[in-house]
Amino acid sequence: MESGTQAHTPRWEDRAKFQLIEVVAFWEGRLTTRHLMDAFGLSSRTTASQLVKRYRELAPGNLEYCHQTKGYWPTDGFTRIFSRGDVGEYLSLLSQHAGLNPDFSSISNHFSAPTEQISAPHRAVRPEVVRKVVEATQNKQRLEVIYRSQTSPLGEERIISPHTLVFADSRWHVRAWCEKHRDFRDFVLTRFVDEPQLEGPRLPDGDPALDNLWQERIEVIFTPNPALPEAQRLLIAGDYAMSDNLQLRINCRKALVTYLLLSMNVHLDESRFEPPAHPLVVLNKDEVESVSFGAQ
């Protein structure tokens, strides 16, 4: 938490609300009372407005009200008091609390239990990129972007229609229709050059309902590597709470299958690794392979 002027130390419940205010305002560029009503189950806009008023008293000069858009905008002098300011804080909030679930128990947790967690650093995603992607997603708009890739490391122009933010492979992506390739693809947020520009309503082809790999799901069936001794297979089965038939079934969007395999340290060509380095294999490999990145 950065330093700031505070009239008093807010209660934990209020700190969670103030954190939400900062995170949404900073990364989306606009906060409304509807955000707070949906997030915390507030029954009236008056109650939500009072919450924003209290925040502004603790963080003077951070937010200004825009009558035209009926929302609060971060000022040029915006200073974080209740939030960290990294993109993972915002995007994790979206992924963990779909629809802004009122249970914000994971926010600002001050318990002192003797635990430790190693967290990989969040890659540097610029707020202006996130704001434009969120705006385009919410308003069904197209974006003109300069995007760097393995084939175009210096960047090239793309017109995309984003529909979902995704955290996978330790990176944040946006799932979007690409007008150049005429298909739905994943775009890594850190690879956007400069600020994306809105280009009007998305084309009919960019309708997320047409993203078949996103809409369709597949059950991936994992099992301990049969090349391992039985005792090791049983040990691995216990690690993953597998059923009695030594199977772990995970339902996944087809578009995210490759990311799931990466997170489980599983390669479909298990012959590339010695069994101890490849403790899990996929039983329905043919079905899964048909929707992996190499097949798309």
**What is the distance, rounded to the nearest whole angstrom, between the alpha carbons of the first and last residues?**
43 Å
| Beta strand count | 10
Question: Could you tell me the radius of gyration in angstroms?
Answer: 22 Å
What is the residue-mean pLDDT, rounded to a whole number?
A: 84
Tell me the name of the CATH class of the largest domain. Answer: Mainly Alpha
Protein model, in words:
The chain has 296 residues and is of the alpha+beta class. The protein has three domains: 85 residues, Arc Repressor Mutant, subunit A (Orthogonal Bundle); 77 residues, SH3 type barrels (Roll), CATH 2.30.30; 80 residues, no CATH class. It is 30% helix and 23% strand. The protein has nine helices and ten strands. A five-stranded antiparallel beta sheet has the order 6-5-4-3-7. Strand 1 and strand 2 form a beta hairpin. The longest helix is centred in the N-terminal third of the chain and has 17 residues. It is globular, with a radius of gyration of 22 Å. The chain starts with 11 loop residues before the first helix and ends in a 7-residue tail after the last helix. 28% of the residues are buried.
